[in-house]
Each structure stands twice: as structure tokens, then as C-alpha cells.
What we know:
This protein has 366 residues and is of the alpha/beta class.
Amino acid sequence: MRRLHILLAVFFLGVGYAHAQKNTRVDVLFIGDMMQHSSQMEAARVIDDEYDFRPSWRYVKDYISSADITVGNLETTIGYSTYMGYPRFKAPVAYLDAAIDAGVDVFLTANNHIYDHYGKGVRQTIDILDSAGVVHTGAWKDTLEYEKNRVMMIEEKGIKFAFLSYTYATNIPSAAPVVVNYRDSVRIKEDIAIARDKGADVIIASMHWGVEYDSIPSTSQTLYAGLLIREGVDIIMGHHPHVVQPIYEIGDKDGEIRHVVMYSLGNYLSGQRTISTQGGMAVNVTFERDKRGDVKIVGSHYMLHWVRHGNDSMENTEKFTILPLGKVLCGDLPLSPSELYRARVFNDRIKRLFETTRVNIKHYDN
């Protein structure tokens, strides 16, 4: 009997050792600007002031929810009444509910539209995000909350992620007590140091930057990207231009991926109507804790999408729907002939852009 106990102990020790040696992988999905223009709101209207935005996400929900963490730029305030589109965005709570239902986990609020409805709009947006129980960062109701939560931490499968979120400015200058995280090199360095002190395995910086509608990163973007990388940021997620800009894996001399830089993901959901703003991109980055306990980037890929606007003869539930572009181009998700032509032009533009700028991240066709 004693010999059996010893064998069982050895067996369970072996199982525990094997489990400890098993690599842990986490997929983080980055999506671009979540905007709400008046045309989207009208399409989502059910009756009077009741809205349903869930149909916009129906074709990408499985992809979004399959990631361990999905991160998006919330480029609108959220409120309970007097909803607005451009230029001073305010979306119904139903807009946020639809994004959460689709699988978005982290909402970034440092952007030029977060102060569109002054301090009251910021506070109300934060209260609604908190009531929904979702993670957010980039703006705070007061300095006390800012100092407490200026570096947001998420732990997934034992890997600790630090999220930082900055904007170049707000359209209406913010005022105390609200704090909006404006881009500043001193503040960035302080936040990275705090992230390290909190034991971050991965540091992710969200940057609202660049020139609107320009597909090539500005000098300011490349300079700030250099600063972030030198200071130890692993992932840079860019937004604000509303068009896709180049994305890169940056490796070391041994060929290991050390950083992923996304200069601009473009729009994920919006009512903007030019070809370059009607399409956008999502990027998935896979992290792994290896047998030695180190967390590494083991791969990344991107997927293009197209926002179908539809026409007056379509049901509202089919308008402003996010479609995987690969399925559109192979005919699985039909578009009108005019929109299909525009989607193909968008695809060709991104292909040429990525070829000329030597993008080295793989394309995932879904």
C-alpha cells in the first residue's frame, strides 16, 4: 500500500509539472474607431428614443468574442438623452450595449471627442461604462480617480497587461475636475514606470494621433512611436486618422518579435462615406508565457472589414453592418454592385499601401 501511495504522489507531481510547463497563450484583438454618426443612429432607431445597434456587429461578433481581450477606441460620449452625431458626438446607452454584446472588453476614452459635452459628458460616460462593468481608461472624473487608476491593469490567464491611453488634444479644451490624458512625454515615462512597478508583463499604449485622412504616419507619430518603444512599450495602437495606416512587427537580432506598431486602424464602425473611411482593420496579437516564465509576442495578423451603408430600400437592420472584407470579395456576403466596387477599391488601396510601406504583418482572411 505504501508503494502505491508513492507511485500516486509521483504521478500527480508529474501532472503538476507538465501543467506548469504548458505554454499559456492570450489573444488580444485591437479594433479602430467606434463612432456614431446621425445616419447610424437613424438606422438603429426602433421607436422614438429606443435604439438597437446590435445588428451592426452580427457578422463580426464571433471573431471579436473569440479573442481573450478585445480593445476599441470609443470615439463618442455616451448619454441618456439629446443624442448627436458629428461634430459633437453623444450616443445612446444601446450603442455601448451592442459593442459589449459583440465582445469588446476594453474601451479607450482618450480622444478628441471625449469632451464634446464638457465635464458633464465625460462624467456621464464614465458612470455608464462603470455601470456596465467594463474596463476603460483615458479619461477620469477627477484627479483622485486619475491618480488611482492612471495605469489600467488586466490579468488574463496569468499574464498582466498594462493599458495606457493618450490623445493629442480634445476639440473643446477640458477643464478641472475632469482629467483627460493628453499626450506628454514626461507623463508617458511616469506611466510606464508605474506599469513596471505593478508587474506588467505587457505594456500597451493607445495613441490618438496623426493627421486625419492621411494614410502615411506623420513625423510626430513616428517620433512618439520611437519614444514609446525606447521606454519599453510592447504594443502601440493608433487611431484618429480614420483611415488605415501601416502596421509593423519589430523584431530583435534573433528574430523574436519585440513590438507591434499599429499607426492607425482606421474606422471600425462609422457613418463616414469616403472609400478609405468606410473600410478599416482589426489586428490580433498573440502573447505566450513560455516554459521559463517569460511573456513573448508569438505572432500577429490583420483582417480588413467594410461597413455596409446600404440604400433607402434596405431594412434598417442591414445598414451600417461591419462585414469581413474577405467574405465580401468572395461573394459570401453580398453587396450592391456600387458598394462592391468601392470595397474592391478599398482592398486594392490597402494592398498597395502595405506593399509600398513594407508592412510585415500577415493578412488573415475570414
